[in-house]
Design a protein that fits this description.
58 residues, 47% helix, 3 helices, mainly alpha
Length: 58
């Protein structure tokens, strides 16, 4: 899960509980980004996605 550090919205308790169903879930916070982190920090988001792909291929 990728989120911006300026998003202003956190996860509700039910959402956090739901995420427990995904034991391999990793949360990455991109600095200087809000809700539209793909617009604000596209290179950072691309780097996170590329790393996730590399990790899944190993």
């Amino acid at each position: 899960m990728v989120r911006g550090d300026r998003g202003g919205t956190g996860l509700r308790s039910g959402e956090r509980q739901g995420l427990s169903a995904f034991p391999h879930l990793r949360t990455v916070t991109v600095p200087d980004a809000g809700h539209l982190l793909l617009v604000a920090q596209p290179a950072s988001v691309a780097a996170v996605v590329a790393e996730a792909v590399r990790a899944s291929v190993r």
